[in-house]
Amino acid sequence: MNMSTINVDLSPKEALQQFFGFNTFKGEQEAVINSVLEGRNTFVIMPTGGGKSLCYQLPALMMEGTAIVVSPLIALMKNQVDAIRGFSDRDGIAHFLNSSLSRTETIKVKDDIRSGLTKLLYVAPESLTKKENIEFFAEINISFFAIDEAHCISEWGHDFRPEYRRLRTIFDEIQRVPVIALTATATEKVQEDILKNLNVDDAVTYKASFNRPNLFYDVRPKKDVGREIIKFIKQHQGKSGIIYCLSRKKVEETAQMLNVNGIKALPYHAGMDAAQRADHQDRFLMEDVDVICATIAFGMGIDKPDVRFVIHHDIPKSLESYYQETGRGGRDGGEGKCVAFYSYKDIEKLEKFLQGKPVAEQEIGKQLLADTVSYSETSMCRRKFLLHYFGEILPGDNCGSCDNCVNPKVMFDGTEALTTLLDAVKESKQRHKGRFICDLLTGTMTSEMKTYKGNAMEAWGKGTEEGAIYWMSVIRQATVNGFLHKDIETYGNLSLTDQGKKFLKKAWPVSFAKERDYTDVDGGSFDDDDVVTPGGKGGAADEKLMKMLQELRQKAAKQYKLPPYVIFQDPSLEEMTLRYPITIEELQTIGGVGPGKAAKYGKPFVELIEKYVEENDIERDIEVVIRSVAKKSGMKVHIIQNIDKRLPMESIGKAKGLTMDALLTEMETIVMSGTKLDINYHLNEVLESDQQEEIMDYFRSSESDSLEAAREEFGGDFSDEELRFMRLKFLSEVAN
Length: 736
What we know:
Elements: H1 12-20, H2 29-37, E1 42-45, H3 52-62, E2 66-70, H4 74-86, E3 94-97, H5 103-114, E4 120-123, H6 125-129, H7 131-139, E5 142-147, H8 167-174, E6 179-183, H9 188-198, E7 204-207, E8 215-221, H10 225-235, E9 240-244, H11 248-260, E10 265-268, H12 274-285, E11 291-294, E12 307-312, H13 319-326, E13 336-342, H14 344-354, H15 359-377, H16 382-389, H17 403-406, E14 411-413, H18 415-427, H19 434-442, H20 447-451, H21 468-480, E15 484-487, E16 493-496, H22 498-505, E17 511-513, H23 543-560, H24 564-567, H25 570-579, H26 584-588, H27 594-615, H28 634-644, H29 649-655, H30 660-672, H31 680-686, H32 689-701, H33 707-714, H34 720-735
Parallel strand pairs: 1-6, 1-7, 2-4, 2-5, 3-4, 5-6, 8-13, 9-11, 9-12, 10-11, 12-13
Antiparallel strand pairs: 14-17, 15-16
Helix pairs in contact: 1-3, 2-3, 14-15, 19-21, 23-25, 23-27, 30-34, 32-34
């Protein structure tokens, strides 16, 4: 088909079929396209994966002239242009104009526009400000201006760009034509900002539902994050995923860690040159690699429909960022698991980045972070919380597709707590943020409390027994359930809604979910000691059970006339002896098993394990991640679990009444049985890295692991304790 000649008599539906080969529109697409075709200013709020691009691409192809599309990223422009050209027999149908083009290429673009061939021109906001471009645009026939990623206009948006705020002025310099602004994430405040700044208060607004029912939201404490990520990806082997990190260094480290562990991954961040970024992006799209580790620069406009998981190694700085990044999962309507690792220490780091910025910007940044904390720490339905943030009400209290809804929460009667809270907000004149109300109820004196004489109020100290975590939870749930209103203009001041006022006059029963406590979560950063060396042979956690499972596997192999390893490989059996799965669902989480194998071969294995657990009175912990333990004794489990938590060696020994010598003996028994122990966190405190390397070199070349020989070699430079710890490190990392 020659797409340079457009049949203007086609209906949008006919044009959709002719240009793109689709028979039906998604959601509000057709209404939006008709609005643009009628020459109206149009505002589109549509979640990632909802088909925003088509809303301006199709009318551009149908209308006279060239549509100018303002886009923030060069990589995004290239993808969009390539996609349009893929439907056409002429490359000139779509172009981009930015700093990456040579002078010759720029002339070619302008010639195609003048000739009427180009229907879509993607430009960076910076390109619009150049005098030569403004003069050129003033001469040509422009059908409309489209502003993609329009949230960049607003200081309240998650990706504010000052150059976007000049767009209206530049448009007026060029020519007055209709505008379509599009964004995937916009709170009510951001929506107001966009319309006001573009001076299009008359715009027809189309807002699609932000609910993505196929996405599963899961927030986990940030402990042993490297190991947890590896475990998760290996449970989803061969599936495409994105891991977001806040720093370039963490992106590089994470990609390296995954590759060391046999997972094909590549980094992507702004510190890499453009060619390398494009290559890594293409390799991910072509499925040469399974995982991309990236900063937020990755993903805008990336049309890979089958991203099956999105992991946030670090919690992002706003819920808009989080929503947009998770929205890159499951765009085909299939499975999309969204796992975020949360530690308040990460929030504190992000708060430090705000220092030195203008006061208003700091206040906005802090409010966005506070909302992120609320989402991360809440025990209520995450989907309900998230949709409420974007001004959408989700009926019911259980979406069935987030960690809080799948894992039953402890509920409590919140009627009295809500009354106390609303009284406190009312008494303090409805002009304070949640933090102040929380401090007021717990009787916490701050400078703000002194200023407003909070200690003289009736509400002062009324909730001391419950504590701060409890009251922050009640505040969040009262807000989401419509009893309180949080005012964005005043950076989060709380006031009573009509429903809140009615409740104070005559209360009715209200249930709230008990909040999770994340205060003991570590900062989650990992160093080399978090890297799990691949190919290490562990041992069974429970030798007796291992033997029973091997015999059962032999029996199953005969029954199915298959080699035993086809049923379950040894590492899978070893993990079963550690985690004791007693249901098919639990068995699916064992490495190398998966749903298919669990369903086909699993029943007799979980029945055997369940009987064994019952007969031997074993305490199961299905979440233990350690691969191999010598014996299932309480002492050894205590040592391994607490080393995994990076507790001080003295504390681990003291809890069981062990001297350091006795603790080392226990650890040596564990390691000699084939189990790895990650003790680098301890060694890094007592020995310099060059000293560690010197001792490691000795053990690598030594014919014996004898302590006496090592002592003699180093002539007293190191204590017996230091040498024993280093021998443990050597045996863990090399022998096992």
